Amino acid sequence: SKLLLEIKKIFKENEIDGIVVGNPLNMDGSLGPSSQSARDFAKNLSKDVTENNPCTIGFLNLVLAANSLSK
Description:
Layout: H1 2-14, E1 18-23, H2 33-52, E2 61-66
Parallel strand pairs: 1-2
């Protein structure tokens, strides 16, 4: 996707080896549709960047950070 291409460009230009992705949990801490979307995005980003970007050394430090007040 266009977003992944832009992120990969930023990674390469800045030699980034980690990223934090917000994980919008429900107020009770449970997972909802937005949380699943964030988790899917993080998984795809990690896989795409580490497999297809020669500037990485085989891994991406990726953290899902709880973010209860977003949609």
